[in-house]
Design goal:
Chain lengths: 328, 318
Amino acid sequence: MEKLLEIEDLCINFGSQPDAVRAVRNLNLSVDAGEVVALVGESGCGKSMSALAVMKLTPPAAIATGSIRFNGTEILSAPDSVIRKIRGREISMVFQEPMTSLNPAFTVGDQIAETLRLHLKISKQEAAKRAVELLSRVRIASPEKRARAYPHQLSGGMRQRVMIAIALSCNPKFLILDEPTTALDVTTQAQVLEIVRELEGEGDTGVLLITHDLGVVADLADRVVVMYAGSPVETSDVGGIFSQPMHPYTNGLLGAVPRRSDGIRRRLNDIPGTVPVIKSNPGRCAFADRCSYAADDCAAKEPELFDIQGGHRVACFHPVGVEEGAIL
Amino acid sequence: MRRYLYRRAGASFITLVLASMVVFAGVRALPGNMAVALSGENGSAAAIAAITREYGLNKPLVVQYFDWVRQILTGNLGISPQTGQSVVQEVAQRLPVTLELTLLSILFGVVVGIPVGIFAALKRGKPIDYASNSLAIFGLSIPSFWFGILLILFLSVRSHILPSSGFVSFFSNPLGNLKDMIMPVVVLGSGVAAILMRQMRSGMLETLRSDYVRTARAKGLPERAVIGKHALRNSLTAVVTIIGLQFGVLLSGVAVTEQVFLLPGIGQLTIDSVFQRDYPTLQALALLIAASYIVINFLVDIAYSLLNPRVRLTGASK
Ligand SMILES: Nc1ncnc2c1ncn2[C@@H]1O[C@H](COP(=O)(O)OP(=O)(O)OP(=O)(O)O)[C@@H](O)[C@H]1O
Ligand SMILES: [Mg+2]
């Protein structure tokens, strides 16, 4: 059966060949209705770019190739008129930048109502009423009053929740949350997670969750895709990632002895070194320079995702905890 | 909002009072004896004494200043030695000409500059962007008297499309009045258009990159609404300030254009008054221009605050 969202061989380049910055390389990812897929990885590894491509909102300088199929529509080649009916209605995105994503010139109530009126063709009064309801749904106190506030009168956490209210306003089939908790204090984080959990409980919304927070992953995700330098390096259901991380990079992220029980509320571990910027075809494992398991073959060829057991896929010649020679 | 308005109005009033003092002191500080100047090149001692008495020039400066303020408040600024007419009447005759000229020039600048600026931003890096930019630089760099003379040469002298100079009042002959205004308005307005176009272009480019414009697109809004509502509103704030500034620049800079097209406005009156050493009129004109600046600034602040809730609600200044 067709998945709700299917990304195949997505590549996003900045600039032209052969000097292009390859921000995303051959990403394959699918999300089913009602499923939460987490996308994790260090800063700059291409998470936001991949998500923006799903909305066809990558910056003008970016060139996206491959295929993104949503509910039967090929996003990357669809005309603007089709995309506009999908954006805000079928797919919504909560951006990574809550402070600057609202328009300073309009009240937040108006900004929520705008989406409602656009897609649901309801009256101004009805939209204003629903905007207030949405504000209370995202746990904003005295929503009538807040609806009349301008963004600069709200805290970062409140703005983030307003963005979530906008995203949820038309009950989208697919929701992208780009680091929804990163900029927030612990209490607000918990509230935001509760909102997402509630959403999962009541319907079949598919969610792509981008996060640094492994606790959030453990809490909410069904499946996980780990990205490194623009490429997926490991994908598995959430249990597999926490119980048996196979890629040395994932292993590093989780710390030495990862266990789901103590993984809660822990952030990605620091791994010495930085993510390389990939330009031409690397022809080698992008992680090799920072990898303690690296051997000669890692510098000779770039590993591809390989199914090791029951959908747990790893792009590594020397996966952790797997007998040497078990693959190939 | 109301409190903000009161505060701004109060500040404007204080500025106006200070400006009147500066204008007064400035005219008094001009070199030469005012009475001698007013009585003409070879006025007799008796004439000088009479003028000294008439204008109260022997009184202490402070008293003279308050006399002047009282004159302003009663709407009687004395007689212009230049024409023998009352100063107020003289200025009131000329003011509509200059106001019409500046308002139409600003309008021209807005109507041409803002759409072209938006268009250039949307077509950034395309030929149309370069073309409008070059035209703007041309509009800014050509001296107004030269531009005016060229227009007269081609549109009046050669092809007789427009009258080369002169002025009829809008109320006696509307069409003729507008015809008289076309060339001077193009001369003054093209500079305004160029400045507004460049400001609009850069402001628009900046807002188009902003996160909230991305949000507007993410909602599924058509590009028309993304640009016309979300981007425009925020790029206009800077433009409004510039429009106000341009108003001031035009008001004190119309003299050359008025001279080229022989329009009987404030600019011409100023030049005549300088040559005739008509101090009462000069003083009135200086105050008028200062007052216009202040009023326009006040209006700009209101427009700015209407566009920008952060200013409106907190009273923070730009
Ligand atoms: N305008 C641009 N020009 C060139 N490269 C760019 C541009 N914008 C982004 N990139 C590249 O795209 C890569 C991916 O960026 P992206 O924002 O997707 O990272 P991310 O995984 O979301 O990181 P973070 O966790 O910091 O949000 C970056 O490494 C950067 O080099
Ligand atoms: Mg990001």
